[in-house]
């Protein structure tokens, strides 16, 4: 039996892509294999580790727990879409670099997307809120101390960026 | 870890969804998918057809109705948790929802989906059972209401028919002067609970619901039991199970500890509300 294929138009980081995929294609696999956007990492593939977290209409979601066919008509943002328009690092990325928030980098894309949305909803998190913001993402090498620092630093960078802009 | 092949339909109306389900006995409804997709990826489930209801308009509602809360099939946990109306009318719902997985999962997962999934380790089935709520489903014969007491029939098994779609869940509101509380013990916040407990105190009546104690949500009546005896009285009506996460003896100990704790908190809640 040949598997039925679906034509799906995905909007990722503002660009539309037409792909033909079986219904069972996980969104994480469509991003990586069909679109070549390998910034989204796949760790546990059952929603626990958080490495594959992307933004769907601005909200963090697990791309390994969605099918590509279900993502049609929604705005997807991956880690590739988090840089500033001029290509420089976005505030969360810059904060990770400054605070040594990554070592091997495997979990980093999921943290960056989650924190980007988290700071949009809560631009000045307390220390506890910063910890809670990343509670659904696992890191196995850097440790969370520097990642929490990076959340707080990213909030500062974003705030100062807004001041400069205004 | 990839799902086995399945046919996929994304109906635009409830009637089309029911029609799609009628043609295939081995079908599953896809809402948030936060429990279903892992089951598919691990090939613990391999339905022939997936009916994706995410594009059906009008199912993401959260409404106050007859003093309670009606939650539509596409209302995400995050939206229900953020609703001030829900918090005011039935505070036990947000208390429990804050323990449902992590924020990222709650952004996609639906409260009704969690009920239909009928996991005895999940928070919302216990809440619905303790409050005496219900689930509204639509099938070929039309709509019917399933009371919570008849909804959870076994491990991961609900009494929703294979040809029915859950449309909404109804959580009765909190009566004036009543109190509620929720607590659970998990290895990490957001993990499945080893044991969780929800209490509802209304006047003299004291009832406590448990998750992860047996293979269906369990509610016990502890009315008239002295405070010091609450844990033992609850255990007399429960049979804690053994599994790889915890021994039965450890679960019994958690029941002893949590029962007193949630009943006290629910009483404090009731006092504070007066």
Question: What is the structure about, briefly put?
Answer:
Chain A has 166 residues and is α+β, with helices and mostly antiparallel strands. Chain A is built from 5 helices and 5 strands, in the order ββαβββαααα.
Descriptive key words:
heterodimer, A: 166 residues, alpha+beta, Ubiquitin-like (UB roll), DNA polymerase, domain 1, 2 domains, 5-stranded mixed β-sheet, 5 strands, 16% strand, B: 274 residues, Uridine Diphospho-n-acetylenolpyruvylglucosamine Reductase, domain 3, Enolase-like, domain 1, 5-stranded antiparallel β-sheet, 4-stranded antiparallel β-sheet, 11 helices, 14 strands
What does this structure look like?
The complex is a heterodimer of chains A (166) and B (274). Chain A has 166 residues and is of the alpha+beta class. Chain A folds into two domains: 5-81, Ubiquitin-like (UB roll), CATH 3.10.20.30; 91-161, DNA polymerase, domain 1. Chain A is built from five helices and five strands, in the order E-E-H-E-E-E-H-H-H-H. Chain A has helices spanning 27-34, 91-98, 108-121, 127-133, 144-165, and strands at residues 5-12, 15-22, 53-56, 59-62, 75-77. A five-stranded mixed beta sheet of chain A has the order 2-1-5-3-4, with helices on both faces. In chain A, a hairpin with a 2-residue loop joins strand 3 and strand 4 (59-62). With 274 residues, chain B is of the alpha+beta class. Chain B folds into two domains: 1-174, Uridine Diphospho-n-acetylenolpyruvylglucosamine Reductase, domain 3 (2-Layer Sandwich); 179-273, 2-Layer Sandwich (Enolase-like, domain 1). In chain B, a hairpin with a 2-residue loop joins strand 8 and strand 9. Chain B is globular, with a radius of gyration of 19 Å. The N and C termini of chain B lie far apart (53 Å). In chain B, 52% of the residues are buried. Chain A: Its EC number is 1.2.7.4. Chain A: Keywords: 2Fe-2S, Iron, Iron-sulfur, Metal-binding, Oxidoreductase. Chain A: Residues 6-82 form the 2Fe-2S ferredoxin-type domain.
């Amino acid at each position: 039996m040949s598997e039925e294929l679906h034509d799906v138009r995905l909007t990722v980081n503002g660009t539309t892509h037409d792909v033909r995929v079986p219904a069972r294609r996980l969104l994480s696999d469509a991003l990586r294999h069909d679109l070549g956007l390998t910034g989204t990492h796949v760790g546990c593939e059952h929603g626990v580790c958080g490495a594959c977290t992307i933004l769907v209409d601005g909200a963090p979601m697990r791309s390994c727990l969605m099918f590509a066919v279900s993502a049609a008509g929604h705005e997807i943002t991956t880690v590739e879409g988090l840089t500033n328009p001029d290509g420089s690092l976005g505030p969360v990325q810059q904060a990770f670099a400054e605070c040594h928030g990554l070592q091997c980098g495997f979990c980093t894309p999921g943290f960056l997307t989650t924190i980007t949305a988290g700071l949009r909803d809560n631009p000045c998190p307390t220390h506890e809120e910063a910890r809670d913001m990343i509670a659904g993402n696992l890191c196995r090498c850097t440790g969370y101390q520097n990642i929490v620092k990076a959340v707080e630093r990213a909030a500062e960078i974003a705030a100062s960026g807004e001041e400069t802009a205004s | 870890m990839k799902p086995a092949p399945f046919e996929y339909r994304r109906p635009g109306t409830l009637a089309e969804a029911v029609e799609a389900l009628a043609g295939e006995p081995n079908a599953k409804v896809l809402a948030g998918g936060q429990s279903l997709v892992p089951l598919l990826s691990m090939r613990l489930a391999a339905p022939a057809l997936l009916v994706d209801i995410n594009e059906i308009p009008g199912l993401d509602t959260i409404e106050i109705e007859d003093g309670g809360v009606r939650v539509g099939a596409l209302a995400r946990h995050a939206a229900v948790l953020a609703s001030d109306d829900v918090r005011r009318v039935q505070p036990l719902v947000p208390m429990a929802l804050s323990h449902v997985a992590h924020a990222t999962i709650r952004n996609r997962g639906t409260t009704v989906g969690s009920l239909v999934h009928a996991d005895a380790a999940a928070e919302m089935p216990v809440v619905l059972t303790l409050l005496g709520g219900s689930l509204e489903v639509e099938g070929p014969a039309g709509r019917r209401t399933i009371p919570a007491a008849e909804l959870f029939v076994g491990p991961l098994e609900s009494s929703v028919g294979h040809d029915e779609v859950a449309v909404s869940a109804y959580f009765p509101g909190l009566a004036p002067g009543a109190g509620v509380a929720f607590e659970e013990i998990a290895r990490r916040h957001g993990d499945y609970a080893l044991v969780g407990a929800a209490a509802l105190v209304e006047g003299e009546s004291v009832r406590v619901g448990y998750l992860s104690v047996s293979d269906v949500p369990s509610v016990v009546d502890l009315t008239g039991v002295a405070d010091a005896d609450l844990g033992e009285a609850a255990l007399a009506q429960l049979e804690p199970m053994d599994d790889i996460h915890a021994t039965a003896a450890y679960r019994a100990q958690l029941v002893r500890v949590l029962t007193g704790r949630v009943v006290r908190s629910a009483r404090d809640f009731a006092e504070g509300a007066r």
